[in-house]
Design goal:
single chain, about 120 residues, mainly alpha, 2 domains
């Protein structure tokens, strides 16, 4: 399911309700007809952005959007040599109590720069 990004008006309203008026996330979500998760997520993005409340009066919507939704850094393409070979995977899977999930978890732990979603 595709999620649409909230409008800057909705985001400013969330921040106003939560930070200025001190209204709970539940009541903010109810008042703005949004999910509680959206309210909490927006507030987390605001905290991570290092912006201060109240926002500067001259802050544009595009500046606020850029602060809350910074462009994703380009993921470096993973060279084939960095990935384990199929023969290595098959050899490991032949061992007792080794699963594909275990191997994946080990790979992610040893190579955090290629974690999905980063």
């Amino acid at each position: 399911m595709s999620r649409r990004r909230k409008t800057m008006r909705e985001i400013r309203s969330i921040l106003h309700y939560r930070l200025e008026k001190g209204i709970s996330a539940d009541r903010t979500a109810l008042a703005l007809k949004l999910s509680k998760g959206t309210v909490i997520n927006t507030l987390e993005r605001f905290k991570q952005s290092d912006l201060k409340w109240p926002l500067p009066s001259d802050m544009s919507d595009s500046a606020l959007e850029h602060a809350l939704y910074p462009p994703k850094s380009k993921r470096s393409s993973v060279a084939a040599t960095e990935l384990p070979s199929m023969s290595h995977i098959e050899k490991e899977l032949a061992k007792k109590h080794v699963t594909l999930q275990c191997l994946y978890d080990e790979y992610c732990h040893s190579s955090p720069e290629v974690l999905p979603g980063t």
